[in-house]
Amino acid sequence: MERLEFLCKKAQKIPALLGENGFAYSDSNKAETIALSIEKQFSLNDLSHRETENEVKKSTENFPSFPLTNNRIDNLKCIQPSEVIKVIKNLNIRKACGLHCIANKMLKNLPCTMIFEFTEIINNFFKFNYFPKAWKTAVVVPSLKPGKDTTQPENYWPISLLSTLSKLTENFILDKLNEHLAENKILCPEQFGFRKSLTTTHQLLRVVEYITSGFEKVECTGAVFLDAQKAFDRIWIQGPIHYQIQNPTHILQLLKS
């Protein structure tokens, strides 16, 4: 919520930042200092398992040459203009736009002819398994974390403003991916995060019931809690792609793109 409020406020000038080569005072030097800090934060962890790295690298590099004719692959249904209109209606007009300066309010006022054209573009993404580089380019806005030292570049959240058209298209990619995961029962039943109709409250309830059942049987229940630092920032993208190659889908090449 605090980060969202920042985007609604007038941009504030960032004070001098302490980088590797001393303090940065000019806007260009501040931007470079924050960029270097973000690059470090988003660097991959050292996997330290060469065999796994080589196996994943080999499968992901050769994957585009694999013919997607496996019987387990379902034909994708084309996106309909009515589906695009439905998503556009639910867009928040207060959300910031990205590099192309196309606001959600503009999308809500598109004529029908443009809706048909945009629908065709989305379907071509699925047809050719390609996501344009321009739609993956974000405008990064640094936002200071509450109560943190303003001179330290690592204390700034990198708020990435993607193209509104890109985020709109992601809705349909996510729907296709979720359908594939559900139909093939790929996700384990105990995973509640980022799943429809499931929340952390359900997970807590499951754990409480498990512990209660142990009490009734006069058993002790052990638990291990892990917190992966910067899990999303440092995800090994080739890993999930390698895993999904075992359960191929038409959109896997699109996700790789």
UniProtKB/TrEMBL annotation:
Keywords: Nucleotidyltransferase, RNA-directed DNA polymerase, Transferase. One of its GO terms (molecular function) is RNA-directed DNA polymerase activity. The keyword Glycosyltransferase does not apply. Residues 149-241 form the Reverse transcriptase domain. It comes from the Eukaryota. InterPro entries: DNA/RNA_pol_sf (IPR043502), RdDP_mobile_element (IPR052560), RT_dom (IPR000477). It holds the Pfam family RVT_1. This is Putative RNA-directed DNA polymerase from transposon BS.
